[in-house]
Amino acid sequence: MTVILRDATPGDAPGIAAIWNPIIRDTVITFWPTERGLPEIRDLIRDRQAADHAFLVAELDGRVAGFATYAQFRAGAGYAHSMEHSISIAPDLHGAGLGRRLIDALHDHARGRGHRIMVAAITGSNQGSVAFHRRVGYVQNGTIPDAGWKFGRFHDLVLMSFDLTAPATTQATNA
Prior knowledge:
Layout: E1 3-7, H1 13-26, H2 38-50, E2 55-60, E3 63-72, E4 82-89, H3 98-112, E5 117-123, H4 127-135, E6 139-150, E7 153-163, H5 168-174
Parallel strand pairs: 4-5
Antiparallel strand pairs: 1-2, 2-3, 3-4, 5-7, 6-7
């Protein structure tokens, strides 16, 4: 399996939509309420990259197999070095190591721009994502009960973070 990690392009929007929209439509993994159209995804790629934030794809045999991106965690200058990421993998490729490769690439990108913290905001019921983030060195900072609304009910939000300035051995110890 030859995987290429690269910057996303506007031409990747259909492949990204094919992964993202079923997650939006069918799960509580994201609280986003409506599917994302191709123009919206193209604009998001452009805007993130223009802000010097990564928007990456994992390409496998010419197909978008996963994507990852980040942006500032909260608005305002005080949060300029705190980023929040989003990462999604095609369902048939879960467990193939793409998530680890994408998140490592996001960390490298953010670290190279002087960012300090990468935040993961995860739906409380998404224990697979919580476990993944623990394995790659994230620590749980807390849970906000009933923070998100989707499918007629409230869902908890788990906040986890990764210190981009800590040595790799420290991160592994915290995992």
